Amino acid sequence: MKIADLRRAYHRRLCEEIIRFKRDKATNYPNFADKGSNSSREIALGVVQRLGCEPSYESISGQAVGRLFEVITKDFLEKAFGQLHHLRPGRWYYSVETPIADFDQYEHLAELERIVGQIDTLSSSLGGDYIIKPDIVIGRGPVSDTEINEKESVLEADGFAGLTPLREANVEHHRLILHASISCKWTLRSDRSQNARAEALNLIRNRKGNLPHIVAVTAEPLPTRIASLALGTGDLDCVYHFALPELIQAIRQVDNEDQMDILHTLVQGRRLRDISDLPFDLAI
User: Is residue 46 classed as helix, strand or coil in its secondary structure?
Assistant: First the structure.
């Protein structure tokens, strides 16, 4: 199936299951817009119109929106990344809110957190919350020696390559290798962007092994708010918008130069991409 078809199916599910319209005295606006910002409401409305969403006023809680956004995004990535299996072969596993201690690079954190929790002086000095639960995780399973030697004899009983977690024979208790951590933010406020950055730094500092992809996906309509998460380097690989071409068109329609300037900076600066780019970036 083509990525464009999967993207349309992704947006269809978002329209049907998440996107709702809120009533206001002057106008109605989608539930990923900020009621107090005319620009946010106008841009968000332009996005949903381009996505072809039928207006729905059925009530849905913010918590339910966040959870569904994670699940629907995970399902899209599983299907889209699966289309690229020939570029990035392997046994891949997808889940939402799985503790990072379940993965090879971070399994030591469970023991660390247990020890710190038992000693008050350590707990007060070092704090806790080592074991985060990213919104979406993608893990890769280790491979057997049979798979490794499938085309030619690469490994022999010589004791070499005896520590790498990619080799199944080296791991007593099989653990997945964390390939990607994906933070889903339906909208962005300063506290939400800082939360995503804090999780990213946790993943960077506390790993034993390779660093997974660390990205964020958002539906936020204001580039100025996306910039609070996307600008800068060193923590997140990149931020992905759930409908970037539609966002660009919507901002052009409302003729908001300030928002367009920021958006141009983010895109040209390689800090903001469309959701359709993410499966390909995960294959790197």
Answer: helix
Sheet holding 92-96, edge to edge: 92-96, 136-140, 177-185, 213-218, 238-241, 272-274
**Listed residue (28, 183, 168, 19) closest to 100, CA to CA:** 183
Q: Residue 106 is which amino acid?
A: Y
Is the CATH code 3.40.50.10010 the one for domain 3-98+133-141+176-282?
Answer: yes
What distance in Å separates the CA atoms of residue 24 and residue 21, rounded to the nearest whole number?
10
CA dist 263 and 106 (Å) reads 35
Round the CA-based radius of gyration of the chain to a whole number and report it: 21
Per residue in 168-187, pLDDT (tens digit) is 999 888 889 999 999 999 99
Contact of 57 with 23, CB cutoff 8 Å: yes
Select from 259, 254, 195 the least CA-distant residue to 223.
259
d(CA 155, CA 148): 7
- What pLDDT does 128 receive? 57
What are the distances in angstroms from CA 26 to CA 29, 32, 48? 10, 17, 18
Instruction: Answer whether 183's CB lies under 8 Å from 216's CB.
Output: yes
- What are the tokens at 238? 């990149």
pLDDT above 90: residue 113: no
Answer for the pair 18, 56: CB distance below 8 angstroms, yes or no: no
